[in-house]
Amino acid sequence: MLLLQKAQAVYTDALQAGHLTPIETRAEIIYQRNIAFSIKIAAHWQQRKAARHDTAQHAQVQHNPFLPFENALHVADIDPQHVCILNKFPVLQPHLLLISRTFEAQVSPLTLQNFQAAQCLMQQLGQEGILFYNAGPSAGASQPHRHMQWIPTPAYAGINPLEHADLLGPHFLAQPGLDAQALYLCYQQGLQQLDWQPGCAYNLLLSRDWLWMIPRRAAAWQHIAINSLGFIGSFFARNQLEADQLREFGFIQALQHVVGWHRSPIRKLDHHPEQ
Predict the structure, then answer these.
(1) How confident is the model at residue 157 (pLDDT cuts 50, 70, 90)?
(2) What per-residue string of b and e applies to 137-157 under the rule 16 or more CB within 10 Å gives b?
(3) How far apart are CA 141 and CA 18, in angstroms?
């Protein structure tokens, strides 16, 4: 069974058993600068926010959902150091997480072993997709435990970094192919060329054709969170007002406002964690 087929079977079982909490949305496709942008608008966000607040009030300590992870979300063991699980709070399906078995800090540099696991995952999935990594809270990370994420390649055109990367500001773009050693060397080159320093957040996106790194100065534009997926043209809005604000201001302009280094140390997470 292909890993993707197994993930779909695990998703069905976990959903029926109540182990998943999908975020209900409706999608709009909006064209700006001849680029198709997708914005997913949440339904019932206030109710979900209230439920999360109640859960946080009862929590005594901040919980790491990856140590241990929920067995019902387990998809596959990738290697001795990494495991693939479902995202417990998916906006789309399938949405997979590649997590380290032991704690590795999300803000620390990726290792060759991380890229080896990423290569293995993408090869086993048997479908085109995007692997992405939010390195630090200012890049959209909500968990301090190392986790990469994978989604299928969006059906809409979206932002193609080979065509549109220069519109957004500073970045590093390479085409090393899907080879772990080459990816790791490109990643190190990207950190060097972007003058990365500890405490600097960034987004990393990886397809079979390219590796793309974007430095980040802020997690959001006008309180609208932007993670790695914003850079392929996929946005999330908590309500219609946020969606309208993004549309009116411009998606490219919103991305430009969050790109670039912010040199202060990465702050400790102060919000209720979610995957």
Answers:
(1) confident
(2) bbbbbbbbbbbbbbbbebeeb
(3) 25
CA angle 260, 271, 139 (to 5 degrees): 20
Residues 61, 55: Cα–Cα separation, whole Å: 11
Spell out the residues 6+ positions from residue 151 whose beta carbon is closer than 8 angstroms to its own: 92, 94, 95, 96, 129, 130, 132, 229
Tokens linked to 83: 């495991």
User: 6-32 pLDDT, tens per residue?
Assistant: 999 999 999 999 999 999 999 999 999
Provide the residue type at 246 as one letter.
L
Rounded to the nearest angstrom, the gap between the alpha carbon of residue 36 and the centroid of all alpha carbons in its chain is 19
**223/237 Cα distance (integer angstroms):** 10
Q: Domains in the chain and their CATH numbers?
A: 3-49+72-258 (3.30.428.70)
Residue 262, burial from CB neighbour count under 10 angstroms (0-12, 13-18, 19+): middle
